[in-house]
C-alpha cells in the first residue's frame, strides 16, 4: 500500500474530513488531496503535522510488512534535500545582486587593513 493511501485510510478510520485535516495541520486541502492520491510524496514537514493531527508517530504511516522502513526514510530525506536545493537555487537566482553585494562588503570588511595599507603605499609612491 502506498503512503498516500495509508494516510487516507488512517484519516477515514479516525473520521476526520480532508477539510478538518487541512484546518488542523495548516496544509491546503489540495496538498492533502495530492498526497492521498499519491500524486506527490509528502515532505517531512507535511508528515509531521499530519502525524500531530492524527496523534500518532510517523511510523504509523509505514506498513512495514510491505515496504522497508529504511528505504522509506531515505526517500523522504532525498526528497527533502532536493526541495532544499531547489529553494536555494531560486533564492540565488532571484537575489544574486544582493548576495554579491553582501559578499563584497564582507570581503572588504575582513581585509580592511590590507586594503588600506595597499592604498596608502600606492598613494605615497606617487
UniProtKB/TrEMBL annotation:
Keyword Transmembrane: yes
PROSITE patterns, sorted: HTH_CROC1 (PS50943)
Coiled coil segments of this chain: none
Keyword set includes Cell wall biogenesis/degradation: no
HTH cro/C1-type domain span: 7-61
Pfam families registered for this protein in UniProt: HTH_3 (PF01381)
Keywords: DNA-binding, Membrane, Transmembrane, Transmembrane helix
CDD domains in the record: HTH_XRE
Residue ranges crossing the lipid bilayer per the database entry: 91-110
Leader peptide range in chain numbering: none
PANTHER family: HTH-TYPE TRANSCRIPTIONAL REGULATOR, TRANSCRIPTIONAL REGULATOR
Protein name per UniProt: HTH cro/C1-type domain-containing protein
Organism: Flavobacterium ammonificans
Top-level taxonomy: Bacteria, Pseudomonadati, Bacteroidota, Flavobacteriia, Flavobacteriales
